[in-house]
Amino acid sequence: MSIDTDTAARVAKLARIRVEEEQLPALAQEFSNILDFIEQLNEVDVEGVEPMVSVTPMRLKRREDGVTDGGMQEKILSNAPDAREGFFAVPKVVE
């Protein structure tokens, strides 16, 4: 597929990219090359090929997902400018 300079200028405008007039032919050629490459990819038969998440077959390391209460209430509240009765205290903002 071939892209002309008018189309390249329109794409640049839609992308809000300023392209000088003398650079438009090179940009149009780059767009054409990209579309040619996409056409090549569309020719590949991928029927029956499983999707991959990596090029090497490996499992991710996993850890036990255990729920804890944290057990650090006093340590966390020690950083608060104002803490009362085991909670963060904040100024009243609604009357």
From TrEMBL:
Tell me which UniProt keywords the record has, alphabetically.
ATP-binding, Ligase, Nucleotide-binding, Protein biosynthesis, Transferase
Which Enzyme Commission numbers does its entry carry?
A: 6.3.5.-
Q: Which domain of life is it from?
A: Bacteria
Catalytically driven reaction(s): L-glutamyl-tRNA(Gln) + L-glutamine + ATP + H2O = L-glutaminyl-tRNA(Gln) + L-glutamate + ADP + phosphate + H(+); L-aspartyl-tRNA(Asn) + L-glutamine + ATP + H2O = L-asparaginyl-tRNA(Asn) + L-glutamate + ADP + phosphate + 2 H(+)
Positions in coiled-coil regions: none
Enumerate the Gene Ontology biological process terms: glutaminyl-tRNAGln biosynthesis via transamidation; regulation of translational fidelity; translation
Q: Which SUPFAM superfamilies match?
A: Glu-tRNAGln amidotransferase C subunit (SSF141000)
Q: Can you tell me which family this protein belongs to?
A: Belongs to the GatC family.
In terms of NCBIfam families, this protein maps to:
gatC
Name of the protein in question:
Aspartyl/glutamyl-tRNA(Asn/Gln) amidotransferase subunit C
**Native source organism of the sequence:** Salipiger profundus
Its gene name is gatC
